[in-house]
Design a protein that fits this description.
Structural class: alpha/beta
Order of helices and strands: EHEEHEHHEHEHEE
Radius of gyration: 16 Å
Strand content: 25-35%
Shape: globular
Largest sheet: 8 strands, mixed
Number of helices: 6
Number of strands: 8
Bound molecules: guanosine-5'-triphosphate, magnesium ion
Oligomer: single chain
Length: 203
């Protein structure tokens, strides 16, 4: 295994209140706050992990889902390696808005190869089964039709599928990278020294 860690930027998008911050906090700090505040602008946290023998530093960017913060979040889309489109299974409107989130991301991120860009879809709050408004098959069908696979049903509250979802995002990036010839993998962190990156980023 190499001593260098690959830096990957993933970005969480979705309506306000679907649980983006809660998912990030569950994954990075293993905590859940039932009284969390709406995010203003963007925040990020890092977590180191190993996926299929590769050391990865996952930089998770958590954005504000509320419309009034649009101009604060969109400048941070550039340089993302994967986009996690998030809705809450007890909120059908947040599911119906997934297409708008995808469009917003594509418009502002300026990705080089839109056809191959990796998305992962998260249907959060599955612990609220009795209040569910979006079915598993319906969500899977949307993902298939919109080339946004894989799909994970998560709960930040119960820690259901949270690790699996973030690790899957890493695997999607690595798989996409394998297809386009390892250009992205030139961005690395030397764990014993300084960060080296050949990618440009506005952030
Ligand atoms: N039951 C349940 N509640 C959750 C879950 N995830 C988040 N919540 C709650 O939903 C509310 C909103 O969660 P946030 O994580 O702040 O939502 P957000 O998507 O970051 O919202 P914005 O920052 O406004 O975009 C909070 O009260 C959380 O405690 C979950 O998996 N299950
Ligand atoms: Mg938030």
């Amino acid at each position: 295994m190499s001593g260098k860690s690959l830096l990957l930027k993933v970005i969480l998008l979705g309506d306000g209140g679907v649980g983006k911050s809660s998912l990030m906090n569950r994954y990075v700090t293993d905590r859940f706050d039932s009284q969390s505040f709406h995010t203003i602008g963007v925040e990020f946290l890092n977590r180191d992990l190993e996926v299929d023998g590769r050391l990865v530093t996952l930089q998770i960017w958590d954005t504000a889902g509320q419309e009034r913060f649009k101009s604060l979040r969109t400048p941070f889309y550039r340089g993302a390696d994967c986009c996690l489109l998030t809705f809450a299974v007890d909120d059908v409107q947040s599911f119906q808005n997934l297409g708008c989130w995808k469009k917003e991301f594509m418009y502002y991120s300026d990705v080089k190869d839109p056809g191959r860009f990796p998305f992962v879809v998260l249907g959060n709050k599955v612990d609220k089964e009795e209040e569910r408004q979006v079915g598993l098959e319906e969500a899977r069908a949307w993902c298939e039709e919109n080339s946004c696979c894989p799909y994970f049903e998560t709960s930040a509250k119960d820690d259901t599928n949270v690790t699996a979802a973030f690790e899957s995002a890493v695997r999607e990036v690595l798989a996409a990278e394998d297809q386009i010839g390892h250009t992205l993998l030139s961005s690395t962190i030397d764990l014993h020294g300084n960060r080296k990156s050949t990618r440009s980023s506005c952030c």
